[in-house]
Amino acid sequence: MKTSEELKQIVKEKYGQIAAQNKEQNESSCCGSGCCSTDVANIMNDDYSKLQGYNPDADLGLGCGLPTEFAKIKKGDTVLDLGSGAGNDCFVARAMTGETGKIIGVDMTEAMIQKARDTSEKLGFNNVEFRLGELENLPIGPSRIDVVVSNCVLNLVPDKRQAFNEIFRVLKAGGHFSISDVVIVGELPENLKEASEMYAGCVAGALQKEEYLAIIRDVHFENITIQKEKVITIPDDILQAYLSEEQLAFYKSSGVGIFSITVYAEKAKECCGTDCCK
Fold it and tell me: Of 263, 258, 183, nearest to 217 (Cα)?
């Protein structure tokens, strides 16, 4: 079992490489995992191209949903994008908040931050900024954010509970999040769990669906809703890199499900008088 720091380094290296590629190159891999397949283009990512604010330079095809579409972003909101990558969701969110809003993207990969900043500068945006940081220790003060979004990133964080604690901390009272992520129903084969490429590809790092939702409840979020859910099917030619024919046959008949879910939840509007207000 790899340590948290080893897992973070795997992600930094892989996504640093991805930052130098375009969307077409990344869509030929499993969420950027590097597992070649001719059938992978639409395994996870949804089509952003029809959303206002979409910029193709910022779309690396790495998401597993459209959280900004469900995030109830209003004019003037301060929006935080966790694992902002090349800035795709940030630029879509800016179109929703308008010039009176503020958008902050946080990512731990230097190359992604630079790519996003370069695009923002080209677009002339003065209310979008990108900060280098980790999701378990966000570079943001408490109660500053109206809306948090994230697209296929929390599954890459070793300490997911701490990441949700940080989301709670930075949200204003009455604020909310909409997060797209990968979850599992059933047990993945050990070979997939141990595969570094499948971790960076957003599968091996995913939690069980009920465990994921339980963490959100335990952190004291309210009105938890699954806004969208879809099945993710990993093509055989990717699985064959990690599983024998016998293991593959067993896996496909085991009932294990890999899903993309978009989850919405709110921070209470008033302090309850306990540590749940953080």
Answer: 263
Instruction: Pull the structure tokens for residue 176.
Output: 């909310």
Q: Which two tokens stand for residue 12?
A: 């930094």
Phi, psi of 161 (to 5 degrees): -60, -45
Report the distance separating Cα 3 and Cα 119, nearest Å. 34
- How crowded is residue 155: how many other Cβ atoms within 10 Å of its Cβ? 22
**pLDDT tens per residue, range 10-62:** 666 666 666 666 655 555 444 444 444 433 334 567 788 889 999 988 988 77
pLDDT tens for 217-274 read: 999 999 999 999 998 888 788 788 888 899 889 888 888 888 899 999 999 987 554 4
What is d(CA 20, CA 226) in angstroms, rounded to the nearest whole number? 33
- Would you tell me how many other CB atoms lie within 10 Å of the CB of residue 181? 26
Q: Which domains does the chain have, with CATH numbers?
A: 4-264 (3.40.50.150)
CA distance 246 to 233: 18
SS3 of residue 200 by DSSP:
helix
Between the CA of residue 198 and those of 22, 222, 269, what are the distances in Å?
Answer: 20, 32, 39
71-109 pLDDT tens trace:
999 999 999 999 999 999 999 999 999 999 999 999 999
